[in-house]
Amino acid sequence: MRISGAEAVIRCLLAEGVDLIYGYPGGAIMPVYDELYKFQDQLHHVLVRHEQGATHAAQGYARATGKVGVAIATSGPGATNLVTGIADAQIDSTPMVCITGQVGRHLLGSDAFQETDIIGISTPVTKWNFQVTEASQIPEIIAKAFYIARSGRPGPVLIDITKNAQFDEFDFSYEKCTGIRSYIPVPKLNFDKVAEAAALINSAKKPLIVFGQGIILGQAEAEFKAVIEKSGIPAAWTILGLSALPTDHPLNVGMLGMHGNYAPNLLTNECDVLIAFGMRFDDRVTGKLSTYAKQAKVIHFEIDPAEIDKNVKTEIAVLGDVKESLATLLPLLDAKSHDLWHNEFKALAEVEFNSVIKEELNPTNGKGISMGETIEMINKHSKGDAIIVSDVGQHQMFACRYAKFNSTKSNITSGGLGTMGFALPAAIGAKMGKPEREVVAIIGDGGFQMTIQELGTIFQTQVPVKIVILNNEFLGMVRQWQELFFDNRYASTKMINPNFVAIAEGYHIKSKKVTQREDLDEAVAEMLASKDSYFLEVMVEKENNVFPMIPTGACVSEIRLS
Amino acid sequence: MEDKTFTISVYSENNVGLLNRISGIFLKRHINILSLNVSESEIENVSRFIIVVNTTEKWVQNIVGQIEKQIEVIKAFYHTDEETIYLENALFKIASNLLFDEKQIQNIIKESQSTIVTVSRDFFVISKSGRRSEIEELYAKFKPYGIMQFVRSGRISVSKEKMEISTLLETFK
What radius of gyration do chain A's Cα atoms show? Predict the structure, then answer.
């Protein structure tokens, strides 16, 4: 079959099972858009309002479904606008394929209109990238792109296609990529290492499990649950591991790290064996490395060899696919309950409840609405069944600390990169990927204005996402640090905001603003009952802080309750 | 942990852009590359990078992990100086009249076991292979007479131990 490179792009995407892509047209990608027009009944293209939105929507889609998200843009500014989302996907291991148009091959290197070296720019933030300059390369390269993006530790891939390669015709055939000789996506599991790990776990008196997104990416939730239930080991999560284990599971002891829960942070420095599954010991989790879990023997189950001993020195490293590792580990573990050890967690959880959580969920002393109680109100009405997409900042920490989750792939947030503006477009992608589920975006007044234009995408596509703005008229997290560490000097953190409800209404999105606590319940109920998209602005207490907190550079056991 | 000299060897697919990807790994960690050499390896279409850095063993482990993670990298290793056979090559361009006016120059060439690559009316070129210190020593000897041009290559090295990659590469043939 003799077709153009542009048509080949579409046929390759269809062959990879793609039915939804996010993008923005422009000069150098027009041949592909022309084919999108012809194939619109098979491949749905969502026109975003800015290319960054396309990447975050693709990420939201990928995180909610486990499939590869696809974003497409033109050369030059179109391509550079993708970079933030690509960097976000790289650090959070999100499978994504980005396709960019490029000037014709004969113009490469001539500083042509909208020419930019997107290969050079995207190299440090992609798992792989490639510039296609001949139409005949397209099938092989796109097949490789999808294979690389989704296999092993997933990540973003960028394919840059020169305009001549889109126009030129060639004999098309497509073969899926099943392997690359220089690339080992999943290291082979070593049974002896698993047995060693099992022996150490069985001998532990105070074991602690810490888990990350690897459980979700490896689709190992059931195996993980079986392992913790048999071994009776308390399990704490990183921000990206959230929702892999239901919130109300008795062995779920909460969140690790800077604004995580009191018990798992303090007891990290008390446990005798620390068992990590699919997480990378990020500095937000470990605090000061030189004092992190020094008393413990560390076992690290991990797919990426480069993560072993990168931050925390391990006693036993088990490389491989986490699902297989957990299934192999399970029969080797002794059934235990560790009751005394659990009591330590319960006692500390009670301390945290009495000094932080109680006040956050039921504020006294005439204070305004808190972020925590708003999240709790969403829990009440969603019953923990919603996908929560959070942006970056204080509201994100409140969302992750207080939102209730019953099922996996339900927490979508920008973890490693901390990209403000992530949530609104990511929620669009999540809802399109999982239309049967309720999707609630929780966003601060700062981050909302970084990608506010995606309200236009919501209006145009009528995607029924629910948007909650927690408005404290501050860049709250930075303000909190200014209060605690910069002597209350609020440098450029006060926001003079527009009338958000009027803006939402300008996009014909149903909206409501809540300023009084007594109106919150009904407003959240109305939002969640709505069949259409809904915008809810909640005016929250201006200068509340997120606690507990491990200050930067402090040790996990120096966690502060106030 | 103290800084040491490490030789990093990378076997990779021969691909445009990979050098950029690899150098970025050093850039991100502020590690200066002392020398870099890229050539074809013993296997067709497989390139071999030899990168010399001065850093701690912890960093070199981290870097090698990150390099090996790149899709087109087949395998990466690091070795200390004691574990490898290594040398560099240098070219000295010197004015021809010195060869006749300064008899000592001929002795320097003989003693240093360097070779004359070419001689023309105006200049001659000497090539010297060896350790950095030997090349520097030769440089110091020629310097008083005047060196028109000097260039030194990056390090090339082979390991003393059998590389575990050999069997893997066999499958690529």
Answer: 24
